[in-house]
Write a structure and sequence with these properties.
The chain has 157 residues and is an alpha+beta fold. It folds into two domains: 1-39; 44-148, Immunoglobulin-like (Sandwich), CATH 2.60.40.1890. Helices cover 20% and strands 45% of the residues. The chain is built from one helix and ten strands, in the order αββββββββββ. The chain has one helix at 8-38, and strands at 44-53, 56-63, 69-76, 79-80, 82-88, 95-98, 101-106, 111-117, 127-134, 139-148. Strands 1, 2, 3, 4, 5, 6, 7, 8, 9 and 10 form a ten-stranded mixed beta sheet that branches. The longest helix has 31 residues, at 8-38.
């Protein structure tokens, strides 16, 4: 009785196909790891309390990512807030006007003090949901306690 096996041509084809699949799998794996180190990270945080005075507020935004972030919208409890001023750590304004919109540009690793107002009274000792929306479409949400402010509403000090 003669035992038949797989021909050498078929076995070579199977080995080549399996080898290609393994190489492709490793290529995707290493590409995903390389992407982790070369892509920019976008992360904006609200630091400290929300300082309030009547319908005016002040909050500190920190860019904890590796790329410049442009904030196009600040929402308090889901409602739009109007930005009056935004100053970096060096005291320079970081507001950018684009197409009638007021934007806040925050460099990586920097903090920005933002002042603005809403159309209703903000109460101290209340927690508010703050949403920060970027021009890249990302949204960051934080619950922040409000405290009475020591600044004059609308002033740059």
């Amino acid at each position: 009785m003669k035992i038949k096996g797989v021909s050498s041509v078929v076995s070579i084809v199977i080995v080549v196909v399996v080898s290609l699949l393994v190489v492709i799998a490793f290529a995707f794996y290493w590409a995903s790891i390389a992407g982790l180190f070369t892509s920019s990270i976008v992360e904006v945080q609200v630091s400290g309390n929300l300082k309030v005075h009547a319908n005016w507020f002040e909050l500190m935004l920190c860019n904890k990512g590796t790329a410049k972030v442009v904030v196009d919208k600040v929402l308090i409890n889901g409602r739009d807030a109007t930005i009056y001023s935004a100053f970096g750590e060096d005291g320079e304004s970081v507001l950018v006007q684009a197409g009638g919109d007021t934007l806040i540009a925050v460099k990586p690793g920097f903090s920005v003090t933002v002042r603005g107002y809403v159309q209703w009274e903000l109460d101290p000792n209340v927690a508010y949901e703050i949403k920060i929306h970027t021009t890249g479409g990302k949204e960051f949400s934080y619950v922040v306690k409000a405290v009475r402010a020591n600044f004059e509403a609308g002033s740059g000090d």
